[in-house]
């Protein structure tokens, strides 16, 4: 299979941060959600993939071709990629109609009618300057630009940030329309994990510069669960050997404990008296990144879960 995007062992070092061993792929017909906390490495990864910064290690292939920062291959391929970054690329004095002129000059396959239709759909007046637009409207303008030159791959960095829920759903509808042809793909970095639950096929999580998990979205939202229990229940779960050493992910809070169950059906069979809810992507990420495990002794079921437990 030829991936639209394939990253292998990508690395980038700064004085205070290191991206290390990042690997992910976007297949034709696939939307990949890219998640993680602020400063985890999402934007650094995207900039390295797009040749905005040079990677120190690893390889990037776009549409099957190896590319590097500043290479002729990268320059030739960029027209096949629609890009929405978390910062506006257009000058404050630029009007919406000027953005259309930029697209016409920059892209051979620029679709002026598509751009005009999207601007109308987003209520972007042609004479409005970028400086007069809200952050959410700027994101809509950037998305309209990205979708109007017939890209095969969209790379989105917080594309729904600053939008109200209705506008976010409208953007997601546009992305579904984009994906309807089947041979296209999206890499979508976002903090709004509920959006990914509506559109993503795969979810990749990065933390402190490294990939923490990569899973089909349905494996998270359909199969995984969160058990809501007491500290004494955690003791019983761990003593039963349901989790291999180091695999349990537990978060303690004021009203009990949450335990991540990768297979909520197996968990429910093993512990029928402990309620287990379907996991959201946010649940899964939070418990994976912040959860800890502990071999709580049965002799002290009322004691607090050991906060010196092994971190992830």
Which helices and strands, and how do they pair?
Blueprint: E1 5-13, E2 18-26, E3 31-35, H1 42-49, E4 57-62, E5 65-67, H2 72-77, E6 81-84, H3 96-106, H4 112-121, H5 135-147, E7 153-157, H6 165-179, E8 185-189, H7 193-199, E9 202-207, E10 210-216, H8 217-223, E11 225-229, H9 231-239, E12 250-253, E13 256-261, H10 264-270, E14 276-278, H11 281-290
**SSE run:** EEEHEEHEHHHEHEHEEHEHEEHEH
Write out the strand line-up for the largest beta sheet, numbering strands in chain order.
Answer: 6-7-8-3-9-10
- Summed over residues and divided by their number, the pLDDT gives a mean of 90
Structural class: alpha/beta
Estimated share of beta-strand residues? 15-25%
The dominant shape is globular
Low-confidence stretches: 295-312
Q: Using the 3D structure, state the CATH architecture of the largest domain.
A: 3-Layer(aba) Sandwich
Write up this protein.
By secondary structure, this protein is α/β, with parallel strands linked by helices. The protein has two domains: 5-220, Rossmann fold (3-Layer(aba) Sandwich); 224-290. It contains eleven helices and 14 strands. The protein has helices at residues 42-49, 72-77, 96-106, 112-121, 135-147, 165-179, 193-199, 217-223, 231-239, 264-270, 281-290; strands at 5-13, 18-26, 31-35, 57-62, 65-67, 81-84, 153-157, 185-189, 202-207, 210-216, 225-229, 250-253, 256-261, 276-278. The strands form three sheets. A six-stranded mixed beta sheet has the order 6-7-8-3-9-10, with helices on both faces. Strands 2-1-4-5 form a four-stranded antiparallel beta sheet. Strand 1 and strand 2 (18-26) form a beta hairpin. The chain is globular and about 65 Å long. The two termini are 33 Å apart. Mean pLDDT is 90; it is low at 295-312.
């Amino acid at each position: 299979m030829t991936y639209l995007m394939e990253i292998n062992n990508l690395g980038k070092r700064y004085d205070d941060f290191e991206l290390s061993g990042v690997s992910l792929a976007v297949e034709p017909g696939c939307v990949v959600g890219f998640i993680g906390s602020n400063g985890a490495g999402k934007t650094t990864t995207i900039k390295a993939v797009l040749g905005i910064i040079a990677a120190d290690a690893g390889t990037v292939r776009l549409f099957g071709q190896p590319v590097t920062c500043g290479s002729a291959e990268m320059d030739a391929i960029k027209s096949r990629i629609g890009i929405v970054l978390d910062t506006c690329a257009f000058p404050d004095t630029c009007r919406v109609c000027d953005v259309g002129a930029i697209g016409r000059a920059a892209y051979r396959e620029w679709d002026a009618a598509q751009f005009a239709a999207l601007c109308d759909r987003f209520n972007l007046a042609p004479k409005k300057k970028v400086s007069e637009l809200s952050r959410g409207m700027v994101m809509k303008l950037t998305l309209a630009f990205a979708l109007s030159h017939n890209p095969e791959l969209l790379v989105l960095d917080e594309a729904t940030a600053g939008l109200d829920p209705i506008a976010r759903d409208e953007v997601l509808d546009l992305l579904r329309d984009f994906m309807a042809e089947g041979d296209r793909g999206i890499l979508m970095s976002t903090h709004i994990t509920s959006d990914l639950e509506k559109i993503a096929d795969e979810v990749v999580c990065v933390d402190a510069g490294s990939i923490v998990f990569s899973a089909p979205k349905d494996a998270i939202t359909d199969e995984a669960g969160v058990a809501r229990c007491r500290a004494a229940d955690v003791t019983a779960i761990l003593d039963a050997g349901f989790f291999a050493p180091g695999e349990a992910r537990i978060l303690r809070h004021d009203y009990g404990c949450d335990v991540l169950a990768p297979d909520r059906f197996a968990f429910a069979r093993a512990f029928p008296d402990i309620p287990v809810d379907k996991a959201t992507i946010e649940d899964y990420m939070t418990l994976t990144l912040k959860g800890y495990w502990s071999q709580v002794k049965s002799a002290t079921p009322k004691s607090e879960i050991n906060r010196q437990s092994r971190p992830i």
